[in-house]
UniProtKB/TrEMBL annotation:
This is Flagellum biosynthesis protein FlbT. One of its GO terms (biological process) is negative regulation of bacterial-type flagellum assembly. Keywords: Bacterial flagellum biogenesis, Repressor, RNA-binding. It comes from Zavarzinia compransoris. Pfam families: FlbT (PF07378). The lineage of its organism: Bacteria, Pseudomonadati, Pseudomonadota, Alphaproteobacteria, Rhodospirillales.
Length: 132
């Protein structure tokens, strides 16, 4: 089934590891075959991966986009997920969903579930007071 994507001017997209940017007016693309695609709004840079949930999201993103290093990213993701579940038991159900998707080989679905973990972490941190 073809996938239709509309890109805003300057919007970035990663297709099978290649970073592309729309250099002109809004553009619509149709992807006709299987490809690893991530839109700019869903891309997290390594510099932005500074918290436990963002590190999980980042390694899952790398696992999705760069299957040639899948074992390294999968191992890192499993370690980060175990650490997250131990530190924040309220996120255990989300972690379990991510692990389930990873085990089934559904990397994009695991990445989508990791967005829920980002929201969970944000909610937890909102309740932490700043001692400064």
């Amino acid at each position: 089934m073809p996938l239709k994507i509309t890109l805003a001017p300057e919007e970035k997209i990663i297709v099978n590891g290649a970073v592309l940017a729309n250099a002109g007016h809004p553009a619509t693309l149709t992807v006709l075959n299987q490809a690893q695609i991530l839109r700019g709004k869903d891309i997290l840079t390594e510099a932005e991966a500074t918290s436990p949930a963002t590190r999980i999201y980042f390694v899952l993103q790398c696992l999705y986009l760069f299957p040639d290093r899948a074992e390294d990213y999968r191992r890192a993701a499993e370690g980060f997920l175990a650490d997250y579940a131990a530190a924040a038991p309220s996120g255990t159900a989300i972690v379990a969903t991510i692990v389930e998707q990873l085990t089934a080989g559904h990397i994009y679905q695991a990445l989508r579930a990791a967005r829920k973990l980002l929201a969970h972490e944000k909610e937890i941190l909102a309740h932490v007071s700043d001692p400064a």
